[in-house]
């Protein structure tokens, strides 16, 4: 099937042809046959890099009105926005600031790219454009089972469909075990395929020997870079099948071999620290010289160094100058952009990354090496989900550039069989709803009441009727949980039951605090905590900006900040010395450790507004520079919510607007 034969205007056809899309890939042709250009609902569960974005574009460009592209991961939204914005004669809007409330400014766009949180927030705030949508594309729909964002995604999609029953829904998924269930939920035709534009073979390397799933074996030279004694070993004393090389040495050999054959590599490890240390280890291997990219690598290093003067920035710049990079969620977005674009331009031989890189960022490589297949989960090392490892492996092979992609799991002789069973032959997990999680239910039940969608428990169940959960288990399965949730919300002061009409009849209405909480897009627990804190702060003689920060940081909407053992005693002293400025007494909290972490975040933010630099804070508190950015961003949002809640309850806490304006 040719692009020229599709029902697209010639301007779009020309655009696609100029970008190398002339003939449709088989899953794309299947989507056209399923009616994606005629308003039909389609679920495409197809491998990485098999052209899902083009399926989305077909739906949105042929829809009979404005379209919405829901992008669960913020990091991907910009890439998708750019894919749409480059199309001729199209107004495209983007909204990814996860939490700002309005959204009315998005009206008038032909296509809106937004996170599910942003659309949820727009719905709660009554944004008019939501009702005018003709088409919604849900990217990464397999993230339905992610904590918190999964329920938001399914409730948002259900609400869009309830408000607008004719809306076309197109959902794009990684290969999962139950795509038929997702298709049934969305009344969609399922496109399922294992087709990939570049062949992928997956294997397990033990020592220098890789056994692939196609029956072939490859020997990788272990001399040269794969020397013993690098600083990146994972220290698990693993047996590698007879030689004295550890997983990191084997990884280094696989990277060196890829580069020697003219390719690039992605190496996945389990933690941020491991990503940095592997990159530093590989930086000694002369990869930039081998690739002949010294000048470009040096320029990429300079670009990274120009972002900031943090330790992380220096480390990244040094690695980049040697043709290697690291990539993890603690990086600032400026650093991530340098790394991703340098890799696409072939100015970097290898990115050492945590699994977050696998979730959609378009950085294909000749070879993917998965060094670590287990991750520490707080109590033990656990195997990564098969889906996650498949997402990493799927990054191997650049269409038109590589003859084939290779994904290699680094193992040991005694783990080889398990790795094959789990990740080479193993099927990915099924996607399951997490809507019944009590914290998610509290958020979405409050929203249903505050928006006026529901006034009784049974109307709340109607709102949930269109969710994936209801499709799988029946909304009735939530009846008891919804009743309990309403009780919780009554106790938290978010809603109340009002008697109505006949004996025993009541309707549930949001209190002013509940309404503000929902519109400000904070969790009910946050709203409750902030209101308590504001009441305390209003009568405190010594409320300062630290007070304002503590009351917003001690909420589930602020990320935790890790508190190391050595810091604990010092943070305890700080909390005691500043107890007059904190809204929680040291003996009042049920979760002292969690509160002390919040005090740490509050202290960092307070020093930030006092003029401490990102370099100083990163050094003093051992947080990633990107972590500081995201906390500052969250603090802005939470302080604005706190201000709105203060107005709602009629108290004045001047340190809240003061902290906000200085932030
Ligand atoms: N029919 C086609 N012919 C040639 N190239 C194509 C075609 N369709 C898509 N591509 C190219 O293939 C690449 C991968 O496509 P895309 O990013 O849409 O993959 P994807 O399925 O969304 O992968 P991911 O799992 O990363 O989301 C892009 O560079 C795109 O331009």
TrEMBL record:
Residues 33-194 form the Helicase ATP-binding domain. Coiled coil: none annotated. The keyword Hydrolase applies. It is an enzyme of class 5 (isomerase). Residues 215-247 are annotated as: Disordered. Its EC number is 5.6.2.4. It catalyses: ATP + H2O = ADP + phosphate + H(+); Couples ATP hydrolysis with the unwinding of duplex DNA by translocating in the 3'-5' direction. GO terms for biological process: DNA repair. SMART domains: DEXDc (SM00487), HELICc (SM00490). Pfam families: DEAD, Helicase_C, Helicase_dom4_arc, HTH_61. PROSITE patterns: HELICASE_ATP_BIND_1, HELICASE_CTER. Belongs to the helicase family. Hel308 subfamily. DNA-dependent ATPase and 3'-5' DNA helicase that may be involved in repair of stalled replication forks. Monomer. This is ATP-dependent DNA helicase Hel308. It comes from Halorubrum laminariae.
């Amino acid at each position: 099937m040719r692009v020229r034969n599709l029902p697209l205007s010639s301007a779009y056809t020309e655009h696609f042809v100029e970008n190398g899309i002339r003939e449709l890939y088989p899953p794309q042709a299947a989507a056209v046959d399923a009616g994606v250009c005629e308003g039909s609902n389609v679920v495409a569960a197809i491998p990485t890099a098999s052209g899902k974005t083009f399926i989305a574009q077909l739906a949105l460009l042929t829809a009979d009105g404005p379209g919405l592209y829901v992008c669960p991961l913020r990091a991907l939204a910009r890439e998708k926005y750019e894919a749409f914005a480059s199309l001729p004669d199209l107004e495209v809007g983007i909204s990814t600031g996860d939490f700002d409330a309005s959204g009315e400014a998005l009206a008038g766009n032909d296509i809106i790219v937004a996170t599910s949180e942003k659309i949820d927030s727009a719905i709660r705030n009554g944004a008019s454009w939501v009702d005018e949508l003709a088409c919604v594309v849900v990217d990464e729909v397999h993230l339905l089972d992610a904590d918190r964002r999964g329920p938001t995604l399914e409730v948002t999609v259900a609400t869009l469909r309830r408000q607008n029953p004719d809306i076309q829904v197109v959902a794009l998924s990684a290969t999962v075990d139950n795509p038929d269930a997702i298709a049934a939920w969305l009344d969609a035709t399922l496109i399922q395929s294992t087709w990939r534009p570049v062949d992928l073979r997956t294997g397990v390397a033990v020592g220098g020997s890789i056994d692939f799933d196609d029956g072939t074996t490859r020997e990788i030279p272990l001399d040269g870079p794969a020397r013993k004694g690098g600083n990146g070993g994972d220290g698990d004393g693993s047996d590698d099948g007879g030689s004295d090389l550890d997983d990191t040495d084997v990884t280094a050999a696989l990277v060196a071999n890829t580069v020697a054959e003219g390719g690039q590599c992605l190496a996945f490890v389990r933690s941020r620290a491991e990503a940095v240390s592997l990159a530093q280890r590989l930086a000694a291997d002369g990869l930039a010289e081998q690739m002949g990219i010294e000048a470009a690598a040096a320029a990429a290093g300079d670009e990274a160094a120009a972002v900031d003067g943090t330790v992380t920035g220096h480390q990244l710049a040094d690695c980049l100058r040697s043709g290697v990079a690291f990539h993890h969620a603690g990086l600032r977005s400026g650093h991530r952009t340098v790394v991703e674009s340098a890799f696409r331009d072939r100015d970097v031989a290898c990115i050492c990354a945590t699994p977050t890189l696998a979730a959609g960022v378009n950085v294909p490589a000749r070879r993917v090496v998965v060094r670590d297949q287990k991750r520490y989960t707080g109590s033990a090392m656990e195997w990564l989900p098969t889906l996650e490892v498949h997402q990493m492996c799927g990054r191997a092979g650049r269409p038109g550039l590589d003859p084939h992609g290779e994904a290699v799991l680094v193992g040991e002789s005694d783990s080889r069989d398990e790795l094959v069973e789990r990740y080479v032959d193993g099927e990915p997990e099924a996607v399951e709803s997490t809507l019944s999680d009590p914290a998610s239910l509290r958020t979405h039940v409050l929203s249903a009441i505050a928006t006026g969608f529901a006034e009784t428990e049974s109307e709340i169940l109607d709102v949930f009727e269109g969710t994936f959960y209801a499709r799988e288990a029946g909304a009735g399965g939530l009846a008891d949980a919804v009743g309990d949730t309403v009780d919780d919300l009554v106790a938290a002061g978010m809603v109340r039951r009002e008697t109505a009409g006949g004996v025993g009849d009541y309707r549930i209405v949001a209190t002013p605090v509940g309404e503000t909480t929902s519109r400000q897009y904070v969790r009910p627990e946050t709203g409750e905590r902030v209101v308590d804190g504001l009441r305390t702060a209003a009568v405190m003689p010594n409320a300062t900006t630290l007070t304002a920060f503590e009351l917003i940081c001690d909420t589930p909407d602020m990320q935790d900040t890790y508190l190391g053992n050595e810091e604990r005693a010092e943070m305890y002293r700080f909390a005691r010395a500043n107890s007059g400025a904190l809204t929680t007494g040291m003996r009042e909290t049920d979760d002292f450790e969690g509160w002390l972490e919040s005090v740490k975040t509050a202290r960092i933010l307070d020093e930030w507004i006092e003029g401490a630099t990102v370099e100083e804070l990163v050094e003093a508190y051992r947080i990633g520079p990107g972590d500081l950015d995201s906390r500052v961003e969250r603090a802005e949002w939470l302080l604005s919510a706190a201000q709105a809640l203060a107005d709602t309850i009629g108290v004045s806490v001047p340190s809240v607007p003061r902290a906000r304006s200085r932030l």
